[in-house]
Amino acid sequence: MSAPGSTTTKMIMGIIIDTIGRFLVLLPATLLFFSKPAGSTTIRVAPAGHQASISAALAACKDGDTIIVSKGLYKEGNLVIDKSVCLLGEGMPVIDGENKFEVLSVKKSDVTVRGLRIQNSGRSAMSDPGGIKIYDSARVTVEGNELVDNFFGIYIQYGTDCIVRNNLVKASQKEEHQSGNGIHCWKSANLQISGNRISGHRDGIYFEFVTHSVIWRNISENNLRYGLHFMFSNDDSYITNYFRNNGAGVAVMFTKKVVMMNNTFEENWGDSAYGLLLKEISDCFLSGNTFTRNTTGIFFDGSNRITMERNTLKSNGWAMRLQANCMDNKIRRNNFTGNTFDVGTNGFLTLNEFTENYWDKYEGYDLDKDGVGDVPYHPLSLYSIIVEKNPPAMLLFRSFMINLLDKSEKLLPSLTPDNFIDRRPLTKPVRL
Amino acid sequence: MPGILKYIALDILKNKIVIAYTIMLALFSWSAFGLEDNASKGALTVLNIVLLTVPLVSVLFTTIYVYNSNEFIELLVSHPVKRSMIWKSLFAGLSASLVLAYLLGAGIPLVLFTDPGTAAVMLISGSFLSVIFAALAFLAAVLTRDKAKGIGVSIMLWLYFALLFDGLVLFLFFQFSDYPVEKLVVMLSALSPIDLSRILVLLHLDVSAMMGYTGAIFKTYFGSAWGLLMSFCLLLLWIWIPFSLSLRKFIKKDL
């Protein structure tokens, strides 16, 4: 038991160190960029000045220049940045795409876009226009912008070492197909997505084929589908983010080696809404997360070798649902409080390990006062199995009949899998 | 009518059983809120008590009381009083005192410990349950002259609504699990006043589990103001139908 355990821990530590390392490596790179190379100039763009258009300034500048855009409204169609410049806004100038164009296209490495309000990009399912779209570039920084009512907010394809930081990304579409994602990253690596606030898009943050990246301190709420959506993106981590009231919560799918720490998942209500949906993922690490008031806190589907520890699962319908196609997951030292059902499953096969969790429904005793209950705890109630097979049976919730069935099942488990068990339940909550 | 009503109400209120029932409810509720660390858990414990004991006490006490006042009824019938008036005042007096006992016993802690919405729904549904089971008891008592049989019928009624009905529903769910029965389920719940009150209260308490797809359907049917009104109308029907049946029977009965 101990040998595979230590390898998982080693692997997890590896991922964490890796992520932090990347963070540190990227920092000097950005610093270097801000120290201007010799011979660079600053171009000012102002609605009333002699240089009134951003496109003209972009045409006139050369690598290493800075363009400062003054306050005002600019409607210039599609702006293409194909030189390594720094585009800065002063007093939040507005660049409008008039619902027709992609607003800013970055097609060169070493570009910085900061302090702009970019709004009303075109909408098209063919070309996926974005407020800011980065094509095949490295070391692009998008910082402190406001992206309002765009199809895609910030779109990165084939980007490496890019930074998306402290942006406000919001949209107000009502239907999923009319809206793109807030921050969309595709086939990229080494990205830093931090401190952004995203709301009203289809997915808040979307990762597909993105590796070695970090998502840190973002707030993603009221999005139409997922707050955060991972597909085929290995070796990433998301830390201290806040996901609230998204259509279906957060989904991590078809992915390996993802670290999820200190995030908050809140208020995801509905039949197929989950605080966190883990589908076909393996070798991940979940720690210090809080799941509150979700229909299902965490949903494990076809997920293997996940270590889940020191999480708080509070006031959910199902704190966690662990499908029978999951194996070798370790669930330890978590707090389960005030959930209607602690655990749900759909079969009899249990190949996962529960140990040293705190369950507020535990009714055992602790004679030797070591903080570990002397009687094992069965987190799976008969009723949760009935409801899993037969959702309308929810009608009988808290009926006396059901209480009787549950109590007799607890004494003599016959219908619930008897190896679904926490042999060392804690008598006091884990202090986090 | 007021004269008879007053006499019956005073007679019942002096009855030791009703006083004991009030005290028992009060003890249970106060200790439920005292022992549980949060008010919503306490409210759930009280809900369990309300759903089990209130119907049981109502149905048994009323049946026995009606049988015991047989001579009193015969005496009244010999006077120039309408039969329907006698039966109605008896019913009104009994229900009023049972509701009063419930409100005094469980109502005070509920109002003190839970939020106003939950307290209101629990008070209203508990009162409805008291009256509904009194009406069912009237029906049971009028059906047969034999006291033992009448009490037996009322116990069976309680057992059916409190336990068997849920078992039957569960059985039906498994039989028809291949079909989309969600909407049917909502209709089914109207067939038992205990289930109806339980769902009404739960929608105010335990939203988390009631969500999901089935929960969403419940919420759309019962959660809105319109649904609330509908369910209270259904509960009213549960009083009116058994009582009017018993009234019709009583008017024609050879005493």
The helix content of chain B is over 70%
User: What is the radius of gyration of chain B computed over CA atoms, rounded to a whole number of angstroms?
Assistant: 19 Å
Count of separate DSSP helical elements of chain A: 4
Give the C-level CATH assignment of the domain at 1-221 in chain A: Mainly Beta
Structural class of chain A, by secondary structure, is mainly beta
Biggest sheet: strand arrangement of chain A = 1-2-5-8-11-14-17-20-23-26-29-32-35-38
SS summary, helix count of chain B: 12
Q: Structurally, how many domains make up the residues of chain B?
A: 1
CATH topology of the domain at 1-221 in chain A: Pectate Lyase C-like
Topology:
The complex is a heterodimer of chains A (432) and B (255).
Chain A: H1 2-34, E1 42-45, H2 54-60, E2 66-69, E3 73-74, E4 79-81, E5 86-89, E6 94-96, E7 104-106, E8 112-114, E9 117-119, E10 130-135, E11 141-143, E12 146-148, E13 152-157, E14 163-165, E15 168-170, E16 183-189, E17 192-194, E18 197-199, E19 205-211, E20 214-216, E21 219-221, E22 228-231, E23 236-239, E24 242-244, E25 249-253, E26 258-261, E27 264-266, E28 274-279, E29 285-287, E30 290-292, E31 296-301, E32 307-309, E33 312-314, E34 318-322, E35 327-332, E36 335-337, E37 341-344, E38 351-355, E39 358-359, H3 382-389, H4 400-411
Parallel strand pairs in A: 1-2, 2-5, 3-6, 4-7, 5-8, 6-9, 7-10, 8-11, 9-12, 10-13, 11-14, 12-15, 13-16, 14-17, 15-18, 16-19, 17-20, 18-21, 19-22, 20-23, 21-24, 22-25, 23-26, 24-27, 25-28, 26-29, 27-30, 28-31, 29-32, 30-33, 31-34, 32-35, 33-36, 34-37, 35-38, 36-39
Chain B: H1 2-14, H2 16-35, H3 39-68, H4 70-77, H5 83-113, H6 116-143, H7 147-175, H8 182-189, H9 193-205, H10 207-210, H11 212-223, H12 225-252
Helix pairs in contact in B: 1-5, 2-3, 2-5, 3-5, 3-6, 3-7, 3-9, 5-6, 5-12, 6-7, 6-9, 6-12, 9-11, 9-12, 11-12
Write a brief structural summary.
The complex is a heterodimer of chains A (432) and B (255). By secondary structure, chain A is mainly β. Chain A has a domain at 1-221: Single-stranded right-handed beta-helix, Pectin lyase-like (Pectate Lyase C-like, 3 Solenoid), CATH 2.160.20.
